[in-house]
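We emphasize that the prediction below concerns an isolated chain of 273 residues; any contacts that depend on oligomerization or on bound cofactors are therefore not represented. The input was used exactly as deposited, without trimming of termini.
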Amino acid sequence: MSAPSYWALRPSVTRIYAMILRYTYLLKGSWPRILELVYWPTVQLVMWGFISQFLASTSSIIEQAFGLFLSAVLLWDVLFRGQLGVSLSFFEEMWSRNLGHLMVSPLRPSEFIAALLTMSLARTLIGMVPASFLALWFFGYSVYDLGLSLIAFFINLIVMGWAIGIAVSGLVLRWGLGAESLAWGLVFAISPLCGIYYPIEVMPAWVHPISHALPASYVFEGMRVILLEHTVKWDLMLTAALLNGVYLTVGVGIYFAFLKSARRRGSLLQMGE
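Result of the prediction step, given as a token string:
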């Protein structure tokens, strides 16, 4: 058998162009994919800019920065994993093409959501509890020193994550798996506005109303007050809880609205990998 000729092995510009054109159409036809390209560099730039500004403006905070940042990292992961726990469980039904079967079964949408939230809680606890003990083992820092307020922080953050996760699931019902990247990036997109590692006052004044509309902002502000002033501000937790009630209601409303739309369009059985 003769060896392939050079002309048979040489790259084809036409085939390469065809594949580039395919991926260009995929990108142009999916606004979540375009958004994903933009927000990662933006989020990193904004967040680290505010952190640097905060540390530069308050030199006295350096001594306590370790506890502040470590607590912020652990608490932030509650929000992220709470949201991701809902989204991933939902996506698993789509990837396996099982979502349509579930929707025509006796399972009610409200029961489905209840199961997603329960799995999100389990996933979050499985991830966070070992991490909190590792922080104590490796660094000698215990997030449990926050006391009973830690329970309020946890509940408010995971409920906010649930609201986002349910809303994202609804958006995926509407736009398909092209919107899947929202599950990975939406929480990070709003993270600079939540004041995770710095007070809201560090940010420009026009951002403050947006930050004050996010429940997580009150949680992280409450965390800093405890660590820096040794005072618990339950009014902050109450405000976060009230906002979470609104967010959760809106998230569930988005999910049910797009579920109804998907059923009307008959697209549930067409969703999958």
